[in-house]
Specification:
Pfam families: SHLD2_C. The chain is 22% helix and 33% strand. By secondary structure, it is α+β, with helices and mostly antiparallel strands. The chain has one domain. A hairpin with a 5-residue loop joins β3 and β4. The radius of gyration is 17 Å and the shape is globular. The two termini are 22 Å apart.
């Protein structure tokens, strides 16, 4: 069985843009454990809409402004030079869940 590859999620507010690495295990959870073989399949012929497109649209609607608030847990790594200027910035998504106060069974990880 194939596995889902890690991905990069771009988050932008119109001025700033940040790329966030998303690991394979979290990608599987985000894609609702859909088999990688199914992601490129068309949902219902003659439509050309794939399971991948539906999952991407759903994730976008969950995270886009105006939706219900959610908590995003990130790991950040900053490498600075001797003048504290950033040489490298890396962000990794650790978890994502609805903002109900505390992560519960609805948390992805």
């Amino acid at each position: 069985m194939k596995s889902i590859r890690p991905a990069v999620m771009t988050v932008a507010d119109g001025i700033h843009e940040v790329c966030i690495h998303v690991g394979s295990k979290l990608m599987e959870k985000i894609l609702f454990n859909i088999s990688p073989d199914w992601l490129n399949r068309v949902i219902a012929p003659p439509s050309e809409v794939t399971f991948r497109a539906v999952a991407a649209d759903l994730l976008h609607s969950l995270l886009a402004g105006g939706g219900a608030p959610c908590v995003v847990k990130l790991h950040s790594l900053f490498v600075l030079d001797e003048n504290s200027c950033p040489l490298q910035r890396e962000f990794s998504l650790l978890d994502l869940y609805p903002d109900s106060g505390e992560p519960g069974p609805s948390a992805l990880l």
